[in-house]
């Protein structure tokens, strides 16, 4: 059950995106990713979906359905006693361009309490800009584990862009 809940939370974070004006540098990209993490932690799922990569929202069935799916999953997580304590982002990696899109990877860490302990997970956000960094969208590495996402949602990725290997979440049992 804990595994399901961890995946649900990370998937919520994972399919999120945030747009911003004139985000041409790493500091601004990190700031945007951090704002996205805070919106997730605060439970503002409508805002989260409003800032989700458009193809991902359509893949989920549209705005209202996507909001409903996230709200239902997070309600179940909360009922199971799981609380997001922290979501933090690291420093953005190198920027790559493929066609009209610019991409980068930024590390993501999530800490959650569960009834029996604490779960720490490491993932990443994939930043995507269709307009030379004026706006950015983000997809979480967990969501990118699904081959359907690659085929149906993402634009063509640069060959040089190496996505991190997903690490297994770490569970620490309460004493």
Compact overview of the structure:
Helices cover 37% and strands 26% of the residues. The protein is α+β, with helices and mostly antiparallel strands.
What distance separates the N and C termini?
Answer: 20 Å
What's the pLDDT, averaged over the residues?
83
Which shape, going by the Cα principal axes? globular
Helix content: 25-40%
Order of helices and strands: HHHHHEEEEEHE
Radius of gyration of CA atoms, rounded to a whole number: 15 Å
Structural class: alpha+beta
Strand content: 25-35%
Instruction: Give the helix tally.
Output: 6
Number of strands: 6
Describe the fold and architecture.
With 175 residues, the protein is of the alpha+beta class. It has one domain. The protein is 37% helix and 26% strand. It is built from six helices and six strands; from the N terminus they run αααααβββββαβ. Strands 1, 2, 3, 4, 5 and 6 form a six-stranded antiparallel β-sheet that branches. A hairpin with a 2-residue loop joins β3 and β4. The radius of gyration is 15 Å and the shape is globular. It starts with a helix and ends with a strand. The N terminus is likely disordered.
What order do the helices and strands come in, and which of them pair?
Layout (H helix, E strand, L loop, with lengths): L1 H13 L11 H17 L2 H6 L3 H6 L3 H17 L3 E7 L6 E3 L2 E14 L2 E13 L7 E4 L6 H6 L17 E4 L2
Antiparallel strand pairs: 1-3, 2-3, 3-4, 4-5, 4-6
Helix pairs in contact: 1-5
